[in-house]
């Protein structure tokens, strides 16, 4: 028997319930009501619910209604800023209005989203040193003006400083360089004020990174910034796994080491002019250069990811690491004797100690005798080589225990939700990753009429994806569709190389045939700018790699064709994926079935999900990977896709696309 509370929740979604008063043409959605009542039950029983809800289910209201009716303190965490802003500025106010309720709502973003007054002040004193160009000097002064007028100090509110301006890292803080209570601006600091508001909120919207920081107490500045909550909702939960992998990793980044030395130069001469701070900086910078060039030479490449266990010549990096260690020790000694001189010097002293720990650890890794002092569980040491930097990472192969114990310590219900958490209704892969074996799992299909609204065309006769001419053939096959559709297409590629080949070929076809086509390509402009142009400019095609597979919502006529080049299996040379696969194999499990296929399915569902975003959308999805038809695992993947009409016939697909262009009745 449903409780009174569960019935009360269901009533909100009734045909003539409160939601109908604020929503045009409101129609109750059974899946939304079931989701909401499941959250209500989880709240009553203190359970964890893992819920997959297809696009259009209305999951935000489904979890918000029970939480608000119960008058509980709720923490909502999202993966990205877009959903955070949408919840805070649109969904939550609309729901509160519908329910006739008031509630203290707060939005807390990561610290890099707020101007740091202390660093801004420092940058203004040294603008010729901090700002790298005349443009950045202009940006710096605009930020100064804004900071003087703004109440929240949120950088997203500044419209005349581009998001990618190089000045931002100089005027925002990190956990490493924030002076905390020792800062002169502590009492009027934008970050601290946002955190104070967060403490008082009844409903707080944060991101997964802050959520993980809170549960791991990793960032000392924010150990107590989140109060107790009665319900935790993790929306966009499919991204929790990647975010957690990065979050729980420890990284030595040579760019940060150089920055540490540069910060010491800018502070050091103020406390002791006798020390050759510039000389120390140069020694550190040279040691970093030496480490980078030695690694490039050994690997014979400037772009690679590699597990240390697979690096045969690792002993050759011991000497460059010793050189770097000596250089940073020299800096550390110089800073240490002046650590009481100012809060900045105290902080620099702490940063030197942390850097030394990491450098020592990595010297020992390459010496073959490292033991991590601060991390537990099976760990993977690996590194990413870039032309001007190297990232040395230590990553736990599983963080399931950390999340599990955090949930047990909190002892409150959690709801984890997303449109893609399961592979054909099987949540095992996700549950194993997040360590919530006792969670109840439920899923609801999208309420859209996929069979009528969409068609999936599988190109049976293209070469196999491993063929050298595969991407060229993909471009040839999809061009007639793109031309017929006047663009309005997303081409989602699994690699940057495929993206380059396909976009070049499409540009060539457009030029030689004299067709006006606006081919927008990832990395040629910022993501926001590409999406803005895609929405507003006619005949647009957006060719992108992974960053466009999810979190992009384009409704209506602007997008009616989505192309996916290959099944997005995890890259086999990704060291973390390889490390996790080996762990599973060691337990006698099949890593292809347990990791590769579920991950490919979830990402493919995300990519396919870009096509139909509301009940009026129509469009064609083209999948160019014939392994869907020829391989045994293909059926499993095929079944997991939205229930579109399906065809292998070019003309049928083309006719469907033409039909999508007809005016809608
Ligand atoms: S407390 Fe930290 S974030 Fe705030 S102004 Fe000071 S240094 Fe910046």
Describe this structure in words.
The strands form three sheets. Strands 3-4-2-5-10-1-11 form a seven-stranded parallel beta sheet, sandwiched between helices. The protein has a seven-stranded parallel beta sheet with strand order 14-15-13-16-17-12-18, sandwiched between helices. Strands 6-9-8-7 form a four-stranded antiparallel beta sheet, sandwiched between helices. It is globular and about 80 Å long. The model is unreliable at 218-222 (pLDDT under 50). The chain has 665 residues and is α/β, with parallel strands linked by helices. Bound molecules: iron/sulfur cluster. Iron/sulfur cluster (SF4) is lined by residues 116-119, 173, 178-180, 183, 185-186, 189, 191-192.
